[in-house]
Model the fold of this input.
Amino acid sequence: MRIDVITIFPEMVDFPLNMSIIGKAREKGVLDLFVHNLREYSGNKHYSVDDTPYGGGPGMVMKAEPFFNAINSLDIDKADSRVILMSPQGTTFNQDKAKKLSRLNRITILCGHYEGIDERVRELLVDEEISIGDYILTGGELGAMVLIDAVTRLLPDVLGHEESIIEESFSDGLLEYPHYTKPREFQGLKVPEVLLSGNHAKIDLWRRKQSILRTLRKRPDLLNNASFSKADQELLAKLRKDEE
Done:
């Protein structure tokens, strides 16, 4: 996959995404990540990318021309690509969206700042707007990094154990079950005996029960869209009764 990020703060994006799993994906060639400085496409000697808003009001608005210049320079094939604007007006990012984006060959992410972006960028360049939550950030860079991290770890050969993707929180609509490692007892708390039993059928059942229970207690809203077998439904009904 190739991801291009267009921003006025390229160092803010590029450096953190050279570390950990994303950095390894770049080293392997699984992810080609390019971060572009929007100011280089300003078209003026002052490298200015913003101006005062028509109609008045506080703050500055990011100009359309630099974004168009940047996109045109990238020679994007729209057939298997998406241009995404990180925006509080966008649809809320989730694991399902991450999966869909991970199937593309190319993503281009636009990062806004100041009071916003000239509306013509939305109308003529952007395929979709994505938000990472209902709160205000200083710009789109942090949201872009969240999106890149979530998408990249779903690409083939990025994680050491592919099954870990399947078992993570939100992968099947539920929160993940509890994890334990050595020592067997720490500050009076012991590892559940079932995890030491070697009985994988019982372990799988315990983990499923804990996943459903944890979701019921912490994020019951997720249960409405989770994929349940008949056994899961019976277990959920029992857990709900026990929790009353």
About this structure: The chain has two domains: 2-152, 169-243. The chain is about 35% helix and 15% strand.
